[in-house]
Amino acid sequence: MIKKIFFKIFIISFFVLTSNSFAVVMPVFKQSAAVTDITGDAIGGPADVTFSPDGTKIHFTNFSNKTGFAFLRQFTLTTPFDISTMDTSSEVRLDLNAGSDDLGSFIQGHAFNSDGTKVIAISSNGPLNIHTLTTPYDISDSSQEADDGINYVAGIGGGDGTVASRDIEFNNDGTKMYLLDGGNDASGDGGVVEYNLGTAFVPSTATSVNEVDTTSTLVSFEQDVEFDDDGTRMYVIDSFTGASSLVKIAVYKLSTPFHTSTATFVGSINNFFNASGGTGTPLGLGFSSDGMKLYQTTYEIGGSGDLDRVYEYDLVCPYGIVICETDAVTAIGAQVEIAKNVIHQNSSTIFKRFEWLRRNDERANLTNHEVKLNIHNPILAALKTNLENSLNNIEYTQASLKKENSKINKKNWSYWSHGDISFGRVGDTASSKPKEVKTRGIMFGGDKFVDKKIFGYAFRYGNDEVDIDDGSSDELDAQTFSLNIYSSVPLKNRSNLNLLFGASYLMIDQLGQDQVTGSRNGKQIYTSMSYENENEYTKYQLIPFGKLEMGITQFSDYTDFGVVSNSVESHESLTFKTGNISAGLKFDDILYLNEDTISRNGFIEYIYDLTPNIDHHLKNHIDNTTLKKTINTHSLHNVKGNIGFEYMYSDGRTIAINYERFQSLDKSGHKDSLLIKFGGVKKHNANLDLIYDPINNNNTKVSYLKQMGNFNLKLNSNYSLFSKIPDYGANLEISGTF
């Protein structure tokens, strides 16, 4: 054991001490395509390249040194972000020499505002013009704004006093603007100049803030500048009209997003263009919306070789040039979501136990076994129905909440079980990518009456998988174990107070390309309480209720070694609070139909998320600089609605269906759930065994035995329930006795 610990310490120390010797992350060439106009002629120098967010439109600024005209050109891609599907017959031109803001013959840079309704283009000679677009990211219908009368070479200051703008960029909300001063670095006048804007995306309101001097890292002419999606990395490309081996992309890290004063040079790549077989002069660069692809253009300026082309490269991680870094906001945000989901699943399941008992009062049984499946896939609906139907065919012991029970029932414990499977999606924000969430769990509980109160305990095992939808293969896998103590206390005036206290232990693995790159443990305590008044109000028999849920979670520190050698990140321990408060109205009306009954039930609930913004600290071994990342609450205001019915036959069989929708009010997030339940209190001549082994590849075995007169029908099956490559089989046996 001591040797193993020493070896681990040695390996970690080796990673830290030799970090500067790691090879840089390089783009992987995929393909290139000629950029020609609708007539088949080369457009004369594609410069800055951008895409619409869905990747179906590609835009090139037309450097006019060859043609004498400056255009912004747009082409359609039949396959998003695939340049081999670029349709040159779909070309649309926006004349940037028209109007009072004539950009002249040296235009390179352009940028769209955050919603794609404006496009801003600039020339190194000083002019800048803005066009408003009728359809976002579509230049086919546009109107030019009035000339602001500013020459941007010296009119707004900054840098060394004169800024020959080769490119223009903005931060995500348009409150900052960046101009790339593209002078020859030998003269010492190259760099990225940062401005604050008084009005978002209005360059004329700019005030100079800072300049990043690039003369020490680049040797030729700066041509283009780009940022990653959260503003923590900046990329500058330079090139010269001579040998393409001089082309270099320099990468800077920004410890404060979009603040160039915090920029640190972390490395550069060169000769990558030659490796792709190109011999032209690279000019502009751009990324796909998920950061998993890099695009490089070449322009014609009297040189030779592959001119007027666009090159496409695959990246091993989002924006992966020189270094790979985890999208910390999204990854840590996913861990926070797992912690919140553990609390929600425990409290929701136990409180449904109370609801089931009260709804089936006078005929309910304390012993109950059910499966709850929240599945956003109609193909799996049959599986849900069969599991719920089978697991509810169990003999019960009668007990009522309101009637006096026998001494035996008071002393004995009643046991229940609950399985849940859910699929969902957590919406994206400006700083966090969307996440696909899959949750599986099984809970076992026992409860009894104590002085007219219900007291019980329950244990839950859960497995959460989160796929980060950023184009990479990053995901999280969590195993959780929870112990709960709960009680329901009757109050005056037909009201009830439900209480829950619980504790959980979490084990979370972070994966990249199906490899575990980091692991952290967590522990949490939580409480939840709800108040329900069983008095019915108005002719619609509305019942008010309220609920409060709070939890504290502590994550250990951990190291994420990433999928490449230089992406090591150290994450500090994290303690945070989560919670929500809700209130609503529900109805649960029972109609008597001879010996059968039908329950019409549902609710409308407003939920306010009490979870504060969470600050998390980490550092990458490249620069050893501690960064603070803030995980924001996805949506403060939410509404949840439910409607359904439960039909109860006189022989004890029940069938229920409920539809539920969770809707965010201040963010574009929602989730739909459909719950179908079959049950019964009468014992049937059938037996079902379900064995789930999470350690052995999640192997699941099902055995079903049904007596049909003198015949026995037996079905056996096995299935690796959650394997990416399913392995399953089944056999059917029929036997008889006479």
Explain what you see:
By secondary structure, the chain is mainly β. The protein folds into 3 domains: 290 residues, 5 Propeller (Tachylectin-2, Chain A); 357 residues, Lipocalin, CATH 2.40.128; 54 residues. The chain contains 5 helices and 41 strands. The strands form 8 sheets. A 13-stranded mixed β-sheet has the order 21-22-23-24-25-26-27-28-31-32-35-36-37. Strands 1-20-19-18 form a 4-stranded antiparallel β-sheet, with no helix packed on it. The protein has a 4-stranded antiparallel β-sheet with strand order 2-3-4-5, with no helix packed on it. Strand 25 and strand 26 form a beta hairpin. The protein is elongated and about 90 Å long. 38% of the residues are buried. The N terminus is likely disordered.
